[in-house]
C-alpha cells in the first residue's frame, strides 16, 4: 500500500472517530460580532404549517408574518441589523444550529433540560400551555388521563409528544405538521390532538367541527436557542427580551396575533433552573438499549416493503399486459397511469391517498395507505421494467409460438413471460432494495418505521452518528441479502449455459 | 391440398405479392427460388398467417382463409388456428425457445395447443428427435447445440404438430456450409416419406435433387413454374437465366 493512501485512510479513521465520539464541531464563538459585521441576524425556523409562529402571509405569500417573525425583526433592529429567516425542518433545528446554518433558533423551542444540555437557551419569551382538541361531538376527553386507550395525535418532537409518550396505553400518532393531525381528527382516524396552545388557537379554534376540550395545562416556556457558550449573543438576546417585556413590545406583538393572555405575566417571574450537565450519550456503547427499538422499526419497514412490493409486482404485470395487449381504451388508461404516477412525487401521492381519499369516503389506516401508496407507485415502474423485458424478447419467439398454433395468451404465458422474467429480475430487485429506503417516506402519514425510530431516538439522545451508523447497518443488512437472493435466482433461471 | 388464389400483399406502398395463384397436390415438394425481396418469404408467411394478406384466398386441406384484415371474431380466429395447425413452419433463424430443453421445445406444441398428455407428447417427441438424429440431446438447451442441430430440433418441433404441409423459410441460410448438409438430409428424408412441402431456399442442388416443382419468384409474381429440369435447364425468361447464372457463380 502506498504512503499516500495509508495517510488518507488514517485521516479518515480519525475523522470517523471524532464524529463517532459525539463531539460537536467547534466554532469560534463570537457570533455577535459576526452578525454585526454581516448586518444580518439569521434565525432558524420552519414556516411550513408554521402559523401563528412564522408563516407566509396569506395576502402576500412572498412575505413572512407571525409573532416570532415580528419578534425576530424587533431583535434584529435592537442589534442594528436586518433579520433573515432560514427555513429548516422543525425537528432538525438544533443540529442545524450546531452546524452553523443560522445564529439562533426562534421557533417555539421549549425551555427543557434536554434542549439545554445540547444548546444554550435564553430567558423565555412566551408562556405556552398544552391544549386538547377534539371533534365537536366529543365531550369526555377534557384531561390528559382521559386519553388512555384513545388514538391521539401530536406534533413530532414537541412537548405534547413527550407528555403523551410518557403515558401508558395511548395510541400515539406522530405527525410531521400541524394541519395533518387536525385533518385526521376530523376524518375520525384519531380521537384527539394535543398541541401547543398558539397552534390550537390558530388552526383549531376557528374550525366549526373542532372544539377545545378542557383547560390549557402543562405550562412551559419558549426560549431562543444559541450555540453552547455563545455567551455574548446570549446576553444580547436576554437584554433585548427583558427590554421588550418592560416596554410592552412583547405584549403588542402577541396581541397582534391574539396570543396575549394572563399567563404571559409569568415571564417576569421566570428563574432559570440549574441544568445538570450530563455526559453525551453514546448509543453505540449502549446498543442493547437502542438496537431493539431500531429493530422494531425495521420490522415495520420490512413488512411494509414486502407487502408493497408484492402489490407492485402483481399490479405492474396487470398494467403492462393491458398496455401491450389490451383493447384501445385500456391501453391508453394503462399508459396514462404510468405517466401520471411517474410524473408526480410519491409524497404527494401518499398525501392524496391518506388525506384525500377520506373526502370521498375511503378511509385507509396509515399502514394500509402506506402499502397502497408505495405499491401503486412502484407498480408503474415495475410495469415499465416488464415492458422492457417483454420487448427484449425477439419477434421470432412469438412467431414460432404462433406458427405452432398457440393463442396470444398461450404465447405470452409459455414463451414470452418466462423469458422476460429472467431479464427483469435485476431491475425489479433494484426497485425492491430502493423500496426499503423509499418506505421511510410513510412517516409523513404517521407510520413509525426504521427511519422514523432513528429520528425519534436521535432527537432525544442527540447521537446522530451512532444511531445513524446502526440504522444504516440495519438497512444494509436488509438489502444485501435481497440482492444475493436475486443473484441466485437469476443464475438458477439461466438457460444459456454454454 | 393447397390452393392459393390471387394473393396480394403490400407493405406501405410496395406491392410485395402481386396476385399469386398456386395449386399443390398432396405429397408434392415445391421449392421457391428467386432474388431477395421477390416476395417468396412473404408468400410463405402468408400461408401460415404470420402475415395477413390484403386480398386473396388460401386453402390448406379443408380450411380456407380470406385475406383482407386480421381475424377478429372468435370464429375467424379459430379458422386461423386450424390453418396454422395444418402448416408447420421452420424459420431461417430456428427460433427455438431458449428457456426450454430440446425435449420441451418439441413437446410444447402438442402439450399446449393440442392438450396432449405429457407422456404421449414425450413419446412423440423422442420418436421425432430420433428421426432428426438428436435422440441423445433431448435434455440439452438450445444454447448448447450447434446451428445445424438447432434447426433439426426446429424441424422436429414443427413435425410434432403433425401438420399436413411443412413450410421451410430458408432453413439453411443462417448455417455454416458444413452444417447445411445435416439439415438438408433430414429434409430429403421428409420428401421421401411423401410430406407435402414448400421450401424457400438458395440450395439449387437440393432443388434439383428433390423438388417435384420449382417456382421462380420475381417482383411479386411467379415467373416460372415447372419441373427442376424445365426451370434449371430451359428457363423461359431472361430474368430466370440471369438469376441462375448469378447463383451458379456464387
Give an account of the 3D structure:
The complex is a heterodimer of chains A (498) and B (250). Chain A is of the alpha/beta class. Helices cover 55% and strands 13% of the residues of chain A. Chain A is elongated. The relative contact order of chain A is 0.10. Chain B has 250 residues and is of the alpha/beta class. In chain B, strands 6-7-8-3-9-10 form a 6-stranded mixed sheet, with helices on both faces. The mean pLDDT of chain B is 93. Chain A binds chain B through residues 394, 396-397, 399-407, 410, 414-415, 418-419, 422, 493, 495-498, and chain B through 48-50, 77, 81, 84-85, 87-89, 91, 93, 95-100, 108-109, 112-113, 141, 143-144, 154, 157-158, 161.
Largest interface: A-B, 23 and 29 residues
- Main-sheet strand order of chain B equals 6-7-8-3-9-10
Mean pLDDT of chain A: 88
Low-confidence stretches of chain B: none
Helix/strand class of chain B: alpha/beta
Q: Report the count of strand segments of chain A.
A: 10
How many DSSP helices of chain B?
A: 9
SSE-based structural type of chain A? alpha/beta
Largest sheet of chain A: 8 strands, mixed
Order of helices and strands of chain B: EEEHEEHEHHHEHEHEEHH
* Percentage of residues in strands of chain A: 5-15%
Strand content of chain B: 15-25%
Report a brief summary of the structure:
Chain A has 498 residues and is of the alpha/beta class. Chain A is built from 18 helices and ten strands.
Topology:
The complex is a heterodimer of chains A (498) and B (250).
Chain A (H helix, E strand, L loop, with lengths): L2 H18 L10 H8 L1 E6 L9 E2 L7 E2 L1 H13 L2 E6 L5 H7 L4 E2 L7 H6 L1 E16 L15 E5 L3 H7 L5 E5 L2 H9 L5 E5 H8 L5 E17 L4 H17 L1 H8 L30 H39 L2 H15 L3 H11 L9 H26 L3 H9 L4 H31 L11 H12 L2 H29 L6
Parallel strand pairs in A: 1-4, 1-5, 7-8, 7-9
Antiparallel strand pairs in A: 2-3, 5-10, 6-9, 6-10
Helix pairs in contact in A: 3-10, 11-12, 11-14, 11-16, 11-17, 11-18, 12-14, 13-14, 14-16, 15-16, 16-18, 17-18
Chain B lengths: L1 E10 L2 E11 L4 E5 L6 H8 L7 E6 L2 E4 L7 H13 E4 L11 H13 L3 H14 L15 H13 L5 E5 L7 H16 L3 E5 L3 H7 L2 E6 L2 E6 L1 H6 L4 H12 L1
Parallel strand pairs in B: 3-8, 3-9, 6-7, 7-8
Antiparallel strand pairs in B: 1-2, 1-4, 4-5, 9-10
Helix pairs in contact in B: 3-4, 3-5, 4-5, 5-6
Amino acid at each position: 500500500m502506498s504512503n499516500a493512501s495509508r495517510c488518507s485512510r488514517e485521516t479518515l479513521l480519525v475523522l470517523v472517530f471524532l464524529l463517532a465520539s459525539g463531539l460537536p464541531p467547534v466554532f469560534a464563538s463570537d457570533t455577535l460580532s459576526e452578525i454585526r459585521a454581516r448586518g444580518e441576524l439569521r434565525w432558524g425556523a420552519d414556516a411550513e404549517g408554521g402559523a401563528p409562529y412564522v408563516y407566509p402571509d396569506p395576502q402576500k405569500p412572498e412575505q413572512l408574518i407571525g409573532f416570532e417573525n415580528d419578534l425576530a425583526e424587533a431583535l434584529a433592529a435592537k442589534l442594528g441589523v436586518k433579520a433573515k429567516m432560514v427555513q429548516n425542518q422543525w425537528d432538525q433545528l438544533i443540529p442545524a444550529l450546531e452546524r452553523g446554518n443560522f445564529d439562533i433558533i426562534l421557533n417555539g423551542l421549549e425551555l427543557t433540560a434536554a434542549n439545554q444540555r445540547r444548546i444554550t437557551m435564553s430567558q423565555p419569551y412566551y408562556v405556552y400551555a398544552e391544549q386538547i382538541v377534539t371533534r365537536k361531538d366529543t365531550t369526555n376527553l377534557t384531561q390528559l388521563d382521559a386519553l388512555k386507550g384513545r388514538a391521539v395525535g401530536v406534533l413530532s418532537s414537541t412537548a405534547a409528544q413527550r407528555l403523551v409518550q410518557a403515558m401508558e396505553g395511548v395510541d400515539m400518532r406522530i405527525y410531521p405538521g400541524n394541519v395533518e393531525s387536525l385533518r385526521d381528527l376530523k376524518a375520525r382516524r384519531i380521537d384527539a390532538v394535543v398541541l401547543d396552545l398558539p397552534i390550537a388557537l390558530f388552526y383549531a379554534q376557528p374550525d366549526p367541527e373542532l372544539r377545545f376540550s378542557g383547560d390549557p395545562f402543562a405550562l412551559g416556556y419558549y426560549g431562543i436557542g444559541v450555540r453552547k457558550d455563545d455567551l455574548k449573543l446570549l446576553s444580547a438576546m436576554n437584554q433585548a427580551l427583558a427590554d421588550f417585556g418592560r416596554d410592552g413590545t412583547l405584549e403588542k406583538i402577541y396581541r397582534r396575533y391574539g396570543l396575549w393572555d394572563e399567563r404571559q405575566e409569568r415571564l417576569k417571574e421566570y428563574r432559570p433552573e440549574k441544568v445538570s450537565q450530563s455526559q453525551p450519550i453514546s448509543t453505540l456503547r449502549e446498543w442493547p438499549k437502542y438496537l431493539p427499538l431500531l429493530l422494531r422499526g425495521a420490522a415495520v419497514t420490512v413488512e411494509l416493503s414486502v407487502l408493497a412490493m408484492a402489490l407492485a409486482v402483481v399490479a405492474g404485470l396487470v398494467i403492462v399486459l393491458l398496455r401491450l395487449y389490451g383493447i384501445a381504451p385500456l391501453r391508453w388508461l394503462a399508459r396514462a397511469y404510468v405517466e401520471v404516477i411517474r410524473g408526480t412525487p410519491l409524497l404527494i401521492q401518499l398525501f392524496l391517498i391518506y388525506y384525500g381519499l377520506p373526502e370521498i369516503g375511503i378511509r385507509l389506516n396509515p399502514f394500509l395507505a402506506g402499502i397502497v401508496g408505495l405499491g401503486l407507485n412502484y407498480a408503474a415502474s415495475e410495469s415499465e421494467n416488464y415492458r422492457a423485458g417483454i420487448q427484449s424478447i425477439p419477434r421470432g419467439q412469438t412467431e414460432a409460438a404462433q406458427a405452432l398454433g398457440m393463442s396470444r395468451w398461450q404465447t405470452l404465458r409459455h414463451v414470452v413471460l418466462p423469458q422476460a422474467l429472467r431479464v427483469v429480475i435485476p431491475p425489479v430487485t433494484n426497485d425492491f432494495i430502493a423500496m426499503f429506503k423509499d418506505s421511510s417516506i410513510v412517516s409523513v402519514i404517521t407510520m413509525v418505521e426504521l427511519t422514523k425510530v432513528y429520528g425519534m431516538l436521535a432527537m432525544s439522545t442527540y447521537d446522530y452518528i451512532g444511531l445513524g451508523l446502526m440504522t444504516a447497518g440495519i438497512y444494509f443488512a436488509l438489502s444485501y441479502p435481497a440482492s444475493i437472493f436475486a443473484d441466485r435466482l437469476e443464475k438458477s433461471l439461466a438457460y444459456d449455459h454454454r | 391440398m393447397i390452393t392459393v388464389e390471387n394473393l396480394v400483399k403490400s407493405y406501405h406502398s410496395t406491392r410485395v405479392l402481386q396476385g399469386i395463384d398456386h395449386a399443390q397436390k398432396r405429397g408434392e415438394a415445391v421449392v421457391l427460388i428467386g432474388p431477395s425481396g421477390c416476395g417468396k418469404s412473404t408468400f410463405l408467411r402468408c400461408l401460415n398467417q404470420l402475415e395477413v394478406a390484403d386480398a386473396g384466398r388460401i386453402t390448406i386441406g379443408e380450411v380456407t382463409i380470406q385475406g383482407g384484415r386480421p381475424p377478429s371474431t372468435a370464429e375467424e380466429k379459430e379458422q386461423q388456428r386450424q390453418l396454422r395447425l395444418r402448416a408447420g413452419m421452420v424459420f431461417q433463424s430456428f427460433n427455438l425457445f431458449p428457456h426450454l430443453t430440446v425435449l420441451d421445445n418439441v413437446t410444447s406444441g402438442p402439450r399446449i395447443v393440442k392438450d396432449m398428455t405429457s407422456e404421449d407428447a414425450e413419446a412423440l417427441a423422442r420418436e421425432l428427435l430420433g428421426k432428426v438424429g438428436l435422440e441423445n440431446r433431448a435434455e440439452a438447451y438450445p444454447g448448447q447445440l450447434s446451428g445445424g442441430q438447432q434447426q433439426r430440433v426446429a424441424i422436429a418441433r414443427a413435425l410434432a404438430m403433425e401438420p399436413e404441409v411443412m413450410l421451410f423459410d430458408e432453413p439453411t441460410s443462417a448455417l455454416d456450409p458444413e452444417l447445411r448438409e445435416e439439415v438438408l438430409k433430414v429434409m430429403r428424408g421428409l420428401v421421401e416419406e411423401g410430406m407435402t412441402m414448400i421450401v424457400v431456399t438458395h440450395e439449387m442442388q437440393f432443388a434439383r435433387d428433390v423438388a417435384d416443382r420449382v417456382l421462380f419468384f420475381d417482383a411479386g409474381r411467379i415467373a416460372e413454374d415447372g419441373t427442376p429440369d424445365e426451370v434449371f435447364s430451359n428457363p423461359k425468361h431472361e430474368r430466370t437465366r440471369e438469376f441462375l447464372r448469378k447463383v451458379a457463380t456464387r
